[in-house]
From TrEMBL:
It comes from the Bacteria. The lineage of its organism: Bacteria, Bacillati, Cyanobacteriota, Cyanophyceae, Pleurocapsales. This is Uncharacterized protein.
Length: 137
């Protein structure tokens, strides 16, 4: 993913007017992290389905899973931006860009690995589906 897409999207939508860090995190950041959420969900879906488990089955058994993943990603970005303590819009977007690059290069993979492991540990009934499906195929 091109990390500049989030900044360009924000500029096109006119949300780059001068604001506080809290306003940036509450209003702009959810729009900026949406592509990262989509990428993460695609990776998770592929990983889950590589175990011959339908992603729809996962969502049926854990309907809040997608929202939980999106919330974790948003909190990852928000906490990192707050820790950097930028003071103006230019710094907000610069911090976002640096964090987005780090997320896409490294964190997305460890994040999805942990989510997949937690999901498999918490969905024992899916393990039964997995072992049955794997034997059939």
């Amino acid at each position: 993913m091109d990390c500049s897409k989030g900044w360009k999207m924000a500029a096109m939508q006119g949300i780059n007017a001068e604001k506080s860090l809290e306003e940036f995190i509450e209003k702009d950041l959810p729009l900026l992290v949406k592509p990262h959420c989509n990428d993460t969900i695609k990776i998770l879906t592929n990983a889950i389905e590589s175990y011959h488990i339908s992603f729809k089955d996962v969502l049926a058994r854990n309907p809040v899973f997608l929202e939980w993943v999106k919330q974790r990603i948003y909190l990852y970005f928000a906490s990192h931006i707050k820790n950097l303590d930028p003071t103006n819009n230019e710094e907000f977007y610069a911090c976002y860009g640096a964090i987005a690059l780090q997320y896409q290069r490294e964190y997305i993979y460890s994040f999805t690995e942990v989510q997949l492991q937690n999901l498999m540990n918490n969905l024992d009934d899916l393990k039964g589906i997995h072992s049955t499906t794997a034997k059939v195929k």
